[in-house]
């Protein structure tokens, strides 16, 4: 039997690297991608194939998938993990911020599915899109990021239905708080204008950027191992929640009246009028 192949984006650290290690443990030939291939050395040492890939670079996407077709000739699992979190008030998000957010979290995953569809069809493979509970329960100062993940969830739903006749399965993963470099990266990507109305809440914005990085956050390794259980289960659900607070965040949106949830979130982020104390 031919060795199964997994293509995983965003493997430089965190969830992506943990997933790559877990798939190697399970006997997959892992094609691990990252913008900086030097970060993939631990995976290469275990037999992974390193691919330089900026997911927003069309030429690199095409080069990656063309090489995959030529050298592997198959694809069993595609994991769209590479992501970007632009935090800050929606009012301060300019067009470039919006485009970069959606390019990385929405358009790139869809393009990668397009480019690998023939291989996935031949193997009756699995597409795994890494979304977020932020795409379900929107919080202040993560609106642009949450909107991109909500869009990815919606596209995953459509792909799951449309690709079913061709034997391709789609699994949408909605992580909660996972220990990774996401908080540091999100902090570096905060969008706030110099004359922003939200300067009084700057600390709250920075706290939101690091909200997933706390002592109780699920480790990336535990996340990857739990996800692998679903991959191996032929009766897997269509979407899964993994990680600290993932079920809690979804429950808040599902069961609380919007007015009560809004009041809780305004209180949590101190969104009282600055002139009212």
From TrEMBL:
<comment type="similarity">
    <text>Belongs to the short-chain dehydrogenases/reductases (SDR) family.</text>
</comment>
<dbReference type="InterPro" id="IPR036291">
    <property type="entry name" value="NAD(P)-bd_dom_sf"/>
</dbReference>
<dbReference type="Pfam" id="PF00106">
    <property type="entry name" value="adh_short"/>
</dbReference>
<protein>
    <recommendedName>
        <fullName>Short-chain dehydrogenase</fullName>
    </recommendedName>
</protein>
<dbReference type="InterPro" id="IPR002347">
    <property type="entry name" value="SDR_fam"/>
</dbReference>
<dbReference type="InterPro" id="IPR020904">
    <property type="entry name" value="Sc_DH/Rdtase_CS"/>
</dbReference>
<keyword id="KW-0560">Oxidoreductase</keyword>
<dbReference type="GO" id="GO:0016491">
    <property type="term" value="F:oxidoreductase activity"/>
</dbReference>
């Amino acid at each position: 039997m031919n060795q199964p192949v997994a293509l995983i984006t965003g493997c430089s650290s965190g969830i992506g690297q943990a997933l790559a290690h877990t798939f190697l443990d399970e006997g997959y030939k892992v094609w691990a991608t990252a913008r900086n291939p030097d970060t993939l050395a631990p995976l290469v040492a275990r037999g992974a194939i390193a691919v330089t890939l900026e997911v927003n670079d069309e030429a690199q996407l095409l080069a990656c998938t063309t090489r995959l077709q030529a050298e592997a000739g198959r694809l069993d699992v595609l994991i769209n993990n590479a992501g970007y979190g632009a935090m800050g008030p929606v009012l301060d998000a300019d067009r470039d911020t919006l485009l970069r957010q959606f390019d990385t979290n929405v358009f790139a995953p869809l393009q990668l599915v397009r480019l690998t569809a023939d291989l996935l069809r031949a193997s009756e493979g699995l597409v795994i899109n890494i979304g977020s509970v932020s795409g379900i329960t929107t919080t202040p100062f993560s609106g642009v990021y949450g909107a991109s993940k909500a869009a990815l969830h919606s596209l995953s739903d459509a792909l799951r239905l449309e690709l079913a006749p061709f034997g391709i399965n789609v699994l949408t993963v909605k992580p909660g708080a996972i220990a990774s470099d996401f908080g540091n990266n999100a902090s570096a990507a905060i969008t706030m204008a110099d004359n922003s109305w939200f300067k009084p809440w700057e600390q709250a914005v920075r706290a939101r950027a690091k909200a997933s990085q706390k002592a109780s956050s699920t480790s990336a390794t535990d996340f990857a191992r739990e996800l692998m259980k679903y991959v191996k289960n032929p009766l897997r659900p269509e979407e899964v929640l993994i990680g600290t607070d993932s079920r809690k965040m979804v429950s808040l949106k599902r069961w609380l009246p919007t007015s009560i949830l809004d009041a809780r979130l305004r209180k949590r982020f101190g969104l009282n009028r600055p002139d009212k104390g």
